[in-house]
Amino acid sequence: MTKNLKARTIVIIATILVCVYGIVDIPKSKADLVQNFKNNIRLGLDLKGGSHLILQVQVQDAVKADADQTMDRLKEDLRKQNINWVSMDRTEPQDIKDADKVEITIKGVPATQTSAFRSLINERYTTYVLTVVNSTDYSMRLKPSDLNDLKVDTVKRAIDTIGNRIDQLGLAEKVVQQYGQAGADYEILVQLPGVDDPARVKDLIGTAAVLEITDVKDGPFPTREAGLAQHGGVLPLNTKMVRMLPRAGSEGESWYLVGKSPVISGRDMRNARPGQDEYRKWETSFNLSQDGGKRFARYTEANIGNRLAVVLDDKVVSVATIQSKIEDSGRITGLGSEDESVDLSRYLRSGSLPAGVKYMEERSIGPSLGADSIHEGMMAGLAGLVAVITVMLVYYKRSGVNAVLALVLNTVVLLAAISYFHAVLTLPGIAGVILTIGMAVDSNVLIFERIREELRSGKGVVAAVDNGFNKAWWTIVDTHVTTVVSCAFLFLFGEGPVKGFAVTLTIGLIANVFTAVFVSQTIFAYELSGRRQMQALSI
Amino acid sequence: MELFKNTNYDFLGKKWPFIIASLVLTVAGLGSIAIKGGLKYGIDFKGGADMTVKFAYEPPLDKIRSAMQSSKQIKGDVSVENFTGATAQNEVEIGTELTEETQLNVNRQAMQDVLTATFGQPGSGKLDFNNTSQEALAVRLRDALARGGVPMSDQQLQKLTADLLDYTNTRYSGLITDFNQLASAPGMNSGIMNTLKQECYLAPFHIVQVQMVGPKVGAELRNKAVLATLYALAGMLAYIAFRFEWIYGLGAVIACFHDTIITIGLFSIFNEEISMTVIAALLTLVGYSMNDTIVIFDRIRENLKTSRREPLEAVMNRAVNQTLSRTVMTSGLTFLTVIALFIWGGPVLHAFSFALVCGILVGTYSSVFVASPIVLFWHNYTDKGSKGPRAPVLATAPRADAVRKSPTKAAK
After folding, report:
1. Which residues share a beta bridge with A241?
2. What number is the average pLDDT over the span A99-111?
3. Which CATH number characterizes residue A106's domain?
4. Are strands A282-288 and B200-201 parallel, antiparallel or unpaired?
């Protein structure tokens, strides 16, 4: 019995040391103690303050862009193979639900060239499914698996891009990750502790998506009507009229006639930076992808002297003249001020998001609320603890001390587990700790009441204590398992703060099985070990 | 000290008054929900934009409400309420509707603009110190400090602004009414103080928290909450059916369901908001109520082994009396901790602790007066045709002090 007791004591003391180390490391001073504590116990957003955003990636933009590129390639291919066609167009998705319905229609392929057309599609457009509408018309849609891949890839790229941009804030802790199911929700979670001004973050992330660099056919015109009048009142084929916003300080807007299909789209844009050229004038430099670079090189080589417009969400941001052949890195020079250069680089970068983002949820918590909450949570915890300890001591006398020790150890183990698992402590999490105190005491109450019953029925002290623990064991297991089951579902379905609550309560209960049974039993064993025949137990 | 030594109350004999009380409470709760047209959902479930603002004086609710409603950019209903909770002072909660996600961006800025226009000094050209971020403050002070003869390196400036805002947040909950309150902030001196007074003003309010939930997310969260509750109940039914008999499982689940409905009814009667954290509290209650019920069932099972001739009602009564001491102690102690949360836990946890307070009271009572009678009714009903009182033998799970090869099946 003594050997067993020694082994148990060593286990308990080792546990205490490991836990204390986990919470406060090895502090060299009181200030150190507090600092280590703060470092080890990570606080959730609701306690530290910060921003929480959920964005939905508008994957239909990516599907649309893919369709645009495919149409370009197809036109080129049809020309090379001398296959005639009358018109080609695609549907316009309005919403994320329409992403699956994007369709390219080709009309007017002569019946004689049907087989040539079909074999072309089969060979070179393997990701698309060709449907015959009638003898001369066809429609194409992405295959379901390819469509899904595109959507999932779009979300991944969006996460990367957004993560990169937020890096500019220089935050130590940030969370940018997929939210919900990959193939179904297309949502991204962004959590930024300490940033209580989400406006700036949203600026950085950007919401606009449709970036196009298109060729300028004509302009500027003071109004849309004036521009149309120049062309006989009707838009020429494959063009559109877009507005340019007035720059700060200048009056009125301008309209430009630009090509409908862009030369470069947001997908090709890799990065953009503001800077100054050799004459200290402001410019914006940009990088394109390899593929985009090749296309851009072909285009710029053939169009020196013509103008290009940077169009963001159907509004012209900047118009520039092509000076020379540009491959994958170029500059837009002649900008008026630093602001213009910074803004333009932001627009270009914003366009390099593969698709637009819509904000679904936004929470920002000022740090003052967090500080208040911590203070209140701790007050409540302390009050609850004091009440419980008092009642236990009064009701169970010296055995109450046993219970109190187990309870304190339970809380220590709980905090240490939070520290070691890098779990995040939220306000409901603090409530979970407080609730653990109440429920942990239950285990001791179960055991003690059983011991009292055994004593009343006339058993000796040692037998009573043993029976008490044995008979109460399965009840303790049952009660803890059921609460852990409900916590498991809370963890699965809940988010953020609620998850924190489920985690702290579960850890607290598991720790409780150890403290209320193993530790309490050891303490009782100590009490009983010295004396041969204990007549009465203070309980 | 021992409160309940060898008690012998006839709990199960006197079950009817309590069952009636249960029904009355349930009906009252459901009636309140029906009259008020549904539950009061928090922003988590209903979607919308919620702003918590702390004022330096008693907030004028009507003025805020009419200012918000007359803004053209804010569409839909506007609700302005005092923020409940013991330690909240002069705090209001402003809620606006969000019918679609695109409004999310617009609403937040609009609400802030309305507050600034109504209570602040938007035209003064100064920065509102009570509602600014560390970056904005640094940008604002950079040149002014240099002009005022207090040049600083960029790093020093960042640290100063962070310290000032931190000081305001921890000492004054983010809202100061006079710049002199910052006199003892770290890094403060007269040059900085003067620059501050020149460049900034103090609006009489401080935006503490903003929450915007798009309607899609709101609907999703509602679904998740319901699913979580149903799955949890199913999980427990399975576990108890495995450890005892299925009717015990059913009795326990009905008791938990009864607790949940009454608690939600009380929420409706007292006009409290239901948010995701409240669902967390409800699920905890379900777990807790199960605890109580299991302890009693465990005792019943133990007693049934030794008393084969006694009628089930007498055995159950004995079990309840034997566990009475433990039940009262545990409920009492958990209740103490929860009341501490309710009184001192602050406004954010208010609804959460309210749910726990109600739930613990109802949960304890339901284990005795709902769960056990259900089992009793069932057994009496199925025993009607048989000869005399039989001993219901339960499927037993392994126990620490006995070794069994296979569980004995329940015989009816």
Report:
1. A257
2. 85
3. 3.90.1070
4. unpaired
Is residue B402 one of the residues assigned to a domain?
no
Answer whether B236 sits within 8 Å of A470, measured CB to CB. Answer: no
Quick check: A459 contacting B, CB < 8 Å? no
Asked whether the beta carbons of residue B168 and residue A359 sit closer than 8 angstroms, the reply is: no
Write the CATH number for B309.
1.20.1640.10
Chain A residue closest in CA terms to B296: A475
Which range, of A149-153, A404-408, B146-150, averages the lowest pLDDT?
B146-150
Sign of CA dihedral A453, A454, A459, A465: negative
Are B219 and B208 in a shared domain?
Answer: no
- Region at A70 (left for phi over 0; alpha for psi -120 to 50; beta for the rest): alpha
Containing structural domain, residue A87: 59-145
CB A40 within 8 A of CB A25: yes
Partners of residue A385 in chain B, C-beta under 8 Å: 337
B381: pLDDT confidence band, cut at 50, 70 and 90? confident
Q: Which residues of A touch B241 (CB under 8 A)?
A: none
Domain count, chain B: 2
Whether residue B180 sits in one domain with residue B91: yes
ipTM over 0.85: no
Q: Is B174 helix (H, G, I), strand (E, B) or coil?
A: coil
- Whether A262 and A357 share a structural domain: yes
Same domain for B33 and B91? Answer: no
- On whether any CB of chain B is under 8 Å from the CB of A383, the answer is yes
- Tell me the pTM: 0.72
Residues B127/B72, Cβ–Cβ less than 8 Å: no
Contact B289, B367 (CB under 8 A): yes
What is the domain extent for residue B246?
15-40+215-383
Q: Which of A214, A65, A228 is nearest to A150 (CA)?
A: A65
pLDDT of residue B407: 45
Largest Cα–Cα distance of chain B, in whole Å? 103
CA distance B401 to A463: 14
Q: B198: which residues sit within 8 A by CB, 6+ positions away? A: B144, B148
CA atoms within 13 A on the CB side of A40: 23
Cβ distance A244 to A254 under 8 Å? yes
Cβ within 8 Å, pair B231-A363: no
Q: Which residue reads 């019953």 in tokens?
A: A453
* CA distances, A354 to each of A154, A188, A265, A349, B303 (Å): 6, 14, 9, 11, 69
Kindly state whether A363 is in contact with chain B, defined as any CB-CB distance less than 8 angstroms.
yes
Two tokens, residue B232:
């949890």
Task: Say if A373 falls within a structural domain.
Answer: yes
Q: Best interface-test mutation with B: which of A52, A95, A359, A361 has the largest number of B CBs within 10 A?
A: A361
Question: DSSP letter string over A508-534?
Answer: HHHHHHIIIIIIHHHHHHHHHHS-SS-
The model's pLDDT over A477-515, given as tens digits with 9 standing for 90+, comes to: 888 888 888 888 888 877 777 788 888 888 888 999 888
The verdict on A359 touching B (C-beta cutoff 8 Å) is: yes
Q: Is A538 on the interface with B (CB under 8 A)?
A: no
What integer is the mean pLDDT of A359-376? Answer: 80
Check residue B367 and report its DSSP letter: I
Tokens 């390196």: give the residue.
B153
Judgement on whether residues A311 and A378 belong to the same structural domain of the protein: no
**Contacting residues of A for B332, CB less than 8 Å apart:** 391
For residue A468, give the CATH number of its domain.
Answer: 1.20.1640.10
- Residues with Cβ within 8 Å of B295's Cβ and at least 6 positions away in sequence, in order, are A446, A475, A479, B323, B326, B327, B367
Q: Which of B235, B298, B322 shows the shortest C-beta gap to A489?
A: B235
Distance (Å, whole) CA B349 – CA B344: 9
Lowest average pLDDT, out of A69-78, A520-529, B353-362, B397-406, goes to B397-406
